[in-house]
Known about the structure:
The chain is an all-alpha fold. The chain contains 22 helices and no strands.
Amino acid sequence: MWKQFLNKLPRKSSSSSKSDTASGSGHNHLGLNSTTSGNSIQRTSSSNVGPARSATVKRMSSAVFPSSVVAGIEPLVSFKDVSNAEKQNLCISKLNLCCVIFDFSDSNKNSAEKDIKRQTLLDLIDYVNAGSARFTEPVIAASCKMFADNLFRVFPPNYRSNSSGGGETEEEEPMFDPAWPHLQLVYDLLLKFIASSSLDAKIGKKYFDHTFILRLLDLFDSEDPRERDCLKTILHKIYGKFMVHRPFIRRAVSNIFYRFVFETDRHNGIAELLEVFGSVISGFALPLKEEHKIFLCRALVPLHRPKTVGVYLQQLTYCVMQFIEKEPKLASAVIRGLLKYWPVTNSQKEVMFLSELEEVLEATNVVEFQKCMVPLFKRIACCINSSHFQVAERALFLWNNDHVISLVAQNRQVIMPILFPALERNSQNHWNQAVLNLTQNMRKMLSEMDEELFLSCQTKYQEEEEKRMALEEKRKITWERLESAAAFQPVTGNTPVLVRP
Length: 501
C-alpha cells in the first residue's frame, strides 16, 4: 500500500537537476569572464572546461597538433618592472605562458590571447638578447619544453603529384604555413637562446639532447621554405655549440639521406641539410677520418640517384668538391659513383651530371684520373652520340676546359681510340648542326694533338666498319638461304611458318 502511495507522488527528474546545475555553472562562468576588463583576461584551468570541449583538436593547414584548451591567458609584468633576482623566475613564468598553443588557421580566433603570447615572446627575445645573467637549469628546462610544445608537430601527407618525386621542384610554388608569424618568433628565440653566451653548453646538452635534435631534424620536411631556412641556421648553431652531439647529428642526417634515397624518394629539406653540411665538411680536420669518407661514399654520392636531384644539386656538388679539395684521392671514387648513378634515360639529369663531372675533373689529378678514365670516356662517348642535342653539346663542351684537355693529352693513347668512333658516327649521322660543328672542331683538336695516332684510329675505325658491314651482309645471306630452304619443305603438324608481309 505504501509503495503504491509513494509512486503516485510527483518526482523531480535527476536529468533536469543536472541540467539546471550545469546551466547555473555556465552562467557563473560567463559572469566571471564578463567582469574582465582591458587586456587582463581571466585564466581558466583546463580541468574546469567541459568534456565536449576538451576533446576537440585544432588542426593547422600545414601541420597537425592539438591546441591547448584554455578560456584565456593574462599578460605578465615586464622584465624591467622586477629586480634582477626575480628575472629568472619571471622568465620561467613567461615560458610557461608561451606553452599555450593556438589554432592559427583562423586569424579571428583567440586574437587577444595570441597578441598576449606574441608580446610575451618578444619580451623573452629582448631578455635573452640582454644576456644579463647565465641561464639557470630550470630556465633551460622550461625553454626546451616551450620550444618542443610550439615547434614539434606532425606534418600532413604530401599531396604533391607523384610525377614530381616529392619535395619542391623548380616549377612548383612553395606552400606557406599560416602560423609562420608566430613560429618565426619562436625560432628567433630558439636561435638567440642557443647562440647566447648565457647558455652553459655543459648544462644545455642535457636538455638539447638526442631526442630534441631528432625531432628538430624532422621539421626539415616542412613545406614552408622560410621555416627550413630558420632550421638551417639553428642546426648549424647546435652543431657548433654542443660538440658532444656532433657525431650523432652526422649519423642522424645520414639516416635522413638513406631514407630519402632508398625508401621514400620524398623530402623537402635535402637542399638545406646539404647547405649546413657544406660548412661542416669545410671544417673537417686533415687527414679525413674514415667516418667522413664513408659519409661521402654512402650518403652523398647516392644522392645523385633521385630524379629530383636538380633541386639540391648545387649544394650537393659543393659538398662533394669540399671532400675532393681536402683529399684529392677521393676524386676517382666520386667519378665512379657518378657513373654508377648515371641517368641513361633522363636527358635533363644527364646534362646536370656532365656539368658536375666537369667541376670534379678540374680538381682531379692525373693519377686519380687514370684509375677511372676508361669507363668515364666510354660514357662520354655515349653522350656525344646522344640524339638529344643538349646532351651531345654539353659533352663536347668539356673540351673547352683546359684542364680536361691536359688530362686527355697526357692519356691520349687510351682515350682517343675510345672517342674516335663516336666522333665519326656523329659527323656522319647527327641531325643537329651545332653538334656537327662542335664534332668537327673536336676532330681537328685531336688531330692536332697527335696526328699519327689520329690517322691510326681512323684506319682502325674504317677496318672495323668494313668488318661490320661484311658480317651484316653474311648474316643477311644466311637468313635468305634459310628462308628459301624452308619454302620447299612441306608443312606438317606444329612446323613454324614464316609469313612474309
